[in-house]
Amino acid sequence: MREPDVLPPGSGARPVWWGSQEPPGRPTSRDRRGRPLVAALLSCLLPGAGQLYLGYRRRGTVMLVITVLCLAVAVGLWSEPTAVSRMLVQPRSLLALLVADAGLLVFRIVAVLDAYLLAKRDDDRTPAATSGWRKGAAAGLVALLTLTAAPHAAAAYYDLQAYDLLTSVFAGEDPQWHARDRDRHQTGNGLVTAIPGRVTVLLLGGDAGPGRRGRRTDTMMVASFELASGKVSLFGLPRNLVQVPLPDGPAADFFGECRCFPRLLNELYAFAEDERPDLFPNSRRPGIAAVAGAAEELLGLPIDHYALVDLLGFVDVVDALGGVTVNNLKPLRIEIDRLGREGGQPAFEVQPGLKKLNGFSALAYSRSRETTSDYDRMQRQRCVIGSLARQTEPAEVLAAFPKLVRVLKRSVATDIPANRLPALIEAAGDTPVKVATVGFTPPTYNSGWSGGYPIPDVDKIQSAVRRMTRPAAVTATTRADPDGLGGATSSTRAPASRSSGSAQRKPACGTAA
What we know:
The protein has 2 domains: 14-169, no CATH class; 185-509, 3-Layer(aba) Sandwich (Aminopeptidase). A 6-stranded mixed β-sheet has the order 15-10-5-6-7-16, sandwiched between helices. The chain has a 3-stranded mixed β-sheet with strand order 14-11-19. Strands 1-2 form a two-stranded antiparallel sheet. Helix 1 packs antiparallel against helix 5, helix 8 (268-275) packs antiparallel against helix 9 and helix 10 (311-320) packs antiparallel against helix 13. The protein is α+β, with helices and mostly antiparallel strands. Residues 1-31, 209-213 and 474-507 have low confidence and may be disordered. It is built from 15 helices and 19 strands. It is elongated and about 95 Å long.
């Protein structure tokens, strides 16, 4: 298209857009009443296109250049998924994205309105439009503006949801949590850890069902990640251990010569939170301090962070994502525990093969221990989590994201501050992850029995931990475990008395240890 022809003053003719002139007082040869909406629609789809359609080349080109620059920035970010991930876990970056989204929305709205008004102005000498046409044009313009604003409103909504999640769940570290750790190391990317090059996190899953005193932490794991090699060592702490040693301090003194917790390990959290919080002064959350201290003494491995997940939250996450499909390898009888929610508690047998489980069924499948060992249960837990992550499509996550935010806010507690998340993502990078697992179950890892419950063999447990956390060289043979089952597939796999089997093509669960 070209700019309107410049005509001699007083010629009585007016320009038209196809290079011809028409006598004054006569309508154009084509009906141009729809041009404002056509121009506005073009600028809605591609800012500047409507202006070019009308012949305003300079104005349209400027808008088009701005649009191309914005698209180039978006493509550049999309080509760096790690950079995008770091950005999406920083509250300040989310606020910056919100401002950018608002600015882009204003730019697109201006482009649509500008195209519409330019076309209206250029057609001001056409025969008067009817009242119905004017109303229709106004309605069409409102619809186009709504269409333009809709994706920006959706992006702003999800941005604010993510900001709310980060500032509530990842609100900041406990200033007293590391009070007893004198030697802590800061890596180049901002991570602060007790062991250089290694991040260790205590993972707890608990519930507080009816008839129970406080929260029971039936799922207790310690995950230790070696940054250089991508090796993750998972240590499962059986719930029924007794006489687990406690670190020096008021709690160890309280229990006398034993200097250990005489009851089941899964009762320690509730004991510290509800009965004697004064014995665990090193945290705003005495239950976390108690379990973390016991885990450190048991494993001989300092813990950097913790994450506590309520089991009802796990149920809600699975249901929000439409369930999870697992490849069960052997029959398993499970009993549904609804954790205080209304409904029946049926028991049924999961047969071998691909099975789709809802939230409560997935929880029961992960927790069942009536006919299997704690190690088998831990393997199923990892299998379910890996299958859920692998099967979840981005569209499903986006659709369920508002509900997931509500679930995570009420179900997850952690001391990992939001400003450390980018460093964690950068540390993980693109290094293939290898997972090796050991479950400290009897009779291999107990030194005796008390009331029918195993007493841990601390020396043997710590020896296994040292073997599994021995620094491993990164080799070209390393590859990721595709199914999240913990099969260490590197030639540098650390030895362990119970490491998981090799990876399989399907998310295989229920494999014998």
